Amino acid sequence: MLRLLRTLAVILCASHAAAQTVSPQVVNEIAPEGKLRAAINFGNPVLAQRDATTGEPRGISVDLSRELARRLGVAVEFVLFEAAGKVADAVKAGMWDVAFLAIDPGRANEIAFTAPYVVIEGTYLVSADSPLRSIEDVDR
User: Fold this and answer.
1) What is the pLDDT of residues 16-27, one digit of tens each?
2) What residues pair up with 38 in beta bridges, in sequence order?
3) Are the C-beta atoms of residues 40 and 81 closer than 8 Å to each other?
4) Are 85 and 106 in contact (CB under 8 A)?
5) Which CA distances in Å does 79 have to 23, 53, 55, 101?
6) Residues in contact with 11: Cβ distance below 8 Å, sequence separation at least 6, in sequence order
7) pLDDT, tens digit, for every residue of 96-136?
8) DSSP letter (8 states) at residue 45
9) What does the angle CA 23 – CA 27 – CA 32 come to, to the nearest 5 degrees?
10) Contacts by 131-135 with C-beta closer than 8 Å and gap 24+?
11) Model-level pTM?
């Protein structure tokens, strides 16, 4: 599995000029149904959204899925979800081949995570008169 994840990372990171041919074995491991079933999570609008006019998925998760499918030489099929938890639950039913989720140790029993492709920093917004002034205040 680790070899497969490293191969997946190389496929996505290779430049167009240096893109390599992907072996049929790797294609079969990543897209065993002959198409790449990509889970798209609309729960995080930073990663994916629905087009306001067409309703079609768009965003970085969609773009990465399309590019991975192109490099594998297979079609992409989007499997749409409204929340990350639903994506994680769907792995047990084998509904998708690739997904874009936050690394969660609780999900690591079912999902093999690669290195992050994006880092999203979060913080809190509080009213001016709040006693909370730092992340440490929230942690307490």
Assistant:
1) 444 568 899 999
2) 78, 98
3) yes
4) no
5) 25, 19, 14, 14
6) 22, 26, 68, 71, 72
7) 999 998 888 888 888 888 888 888 788 888 999 999 998 89
8) T
9) 145
10) none
11) 0.73
Cα separation, 64 vs 69, whole angstroms: 9
* Residue type for position 65: S
Q: Please, what are the domains in the chain?
A: 2-139 (3.40.190.10)
Residue 128: φ, ψ to 5°: -60, -30
Beta-bridged to residue 37, according to DSSP, are 77
| Alpha-carbon span 37 to 30, nearest angstrom | 9
H or E segment to which residue 27 belongs: helix 24-30
Contact 101, 91 (CB under 8 A): no
pLDDT at 130: 94
Residue type, 84: A
CA distances, 125 to each of 46, 128, 133 (Å): 18, 9, 10
How is residue 110 written in tokens? 């079912």
